[in-house]
Amino acid sequence: MMLGIQTRWISVLAAAAVALTSLPVQAAVSKRPNLPIVRDAEIEGLIADYTAPIFKAANLRRPAEIVLVNSPEYNAFVSGRRIFVNTGTIVGSEAPNELVGVLAHETGHLAGGHQERLREQIDRAQKVALVAGLLGMGIAAAGAAAGSGDIARAGTGIFAGGGTTAMRGIISYQRSEEVTADRSALVFLQKAGQSPKGLLTSFERLERNNILAGVQPSRYISSHPAPRDRIAFLDAAAHESPYFDKVDDPALQLRHDLARAKIIAYNDGAGAVQRVFRKDPRGLPAMYGDAISTHLNGSPALALEKIDALIAKAPKNPYFHEMRGEILMEAGRGKEAAEAFETAAKLDPKKSGLIEASIGQALVTGGDRSRMKEAVAQIRKGLESDPTNSNAYRFLAMAYGAMGDDAAAELATAEGYWHGGAIKDAKLFAARAQLKLKAGTPQWMQAQDILQAK
User: Fold this and answer.
1) Which residue, among 302, 226, 298, 392, has the nearest Cα to 287 in the 3D structure?
2) Which of 98, 126, 251, 453 has the fewest beta carbons closer than 10 A?
3) Does the model's pTM come out above 0.70?
4) How far apart are the first and last CA of the chain?
5) Which residues of the chain have pLDDT under 70?
6) Crossing angle of helices 284-296 and 318-330, rounded to 10°
7) Coiled-coil regions in this chain (predicted)?
């Protein structure tokens, strides 16, 4: 996958989240200490529209944050107040309703407080395993002192069995919570006037691919077990919904396919885009994926030609203009890129901070020192609504550097590292910034906050 530093499709490292899996949680975390997080205004806006009615139906006191993980696996999981969604889940969902069903299921976990109770189960299981282990070691020690190999072997068996019993308890608990999340999802979907057919379709596809095709089991299957009786329940319950046959709005389907095309283009290239959208090779999704692939392959002139053809077909699509800005910025045409991003920002119904900040970022790449103050103001505007945009801080530091404000540049760099999860680097640049700042000023205190944070 090609990840340009200056593009809106960026990858940063985030702290590992505890997934609700049937694997030992500690093992799952240790095997995957970091997640490749994707930021993209178009996809984030789409998912926000999917989740809004579900969150409302679930009576969540505050909406959960949706985090996109760049992974081809069909999976989603809850951690804290966040729902993590793999990009592979978006690509693998042929219709919006399929993805909505998965999100409703994860919302069921969130609304039910399953993660908090899972932690309690893990804590209890650890205590059971510890007691069994101590008991086993005690018997083994007694056997060794008595010279009895049989007693020692019995102690070893208790030591091993205690951990197995504890893990069985966790797995059994998780499976019951999965069924509860299924039931909750059906309730949320009906309250939101959504069809449960997509949820059923997702699980049927997963089981079919896992059992009938003889392929490597999907991680979603292993973490969300879907035996035949579970699908049978979903099938019966889903057909009782008055919205079962409700079809996704064509405009929403188009947005969904455009998002899929973008993900496929960035991850797998033009060939994969053509294969997925072979039934409509001249449709907007296929053209979009092709334009992005051309851009990533380093052909800005041809990419501009292709994205302009898309804009001619859909002039009010903000993300076509955003992509035009990306192409121009990569080509070193910062002023024109800023204009394209401005158009995207005006058309964007979500008023994404990513797009707002990109206007200033384009001005920075343009190199016109007389516009650096404007660039700083624009990037700061984007950061007001999206303060975790670590990439924007990098450009903010560049703008301050061009203005000769080294202290502000150091502090912006520290902020960028902080939000990107590189805490040691953040503290290093915060210390450097403090040396250039007057003690007690807001900027000095901001650097101090980073230095004192644990």
Assistant:
1) 302
2) 251
3) yes
4) 34
5) 1-34, 112-176, 209-227
6) 20
7) none
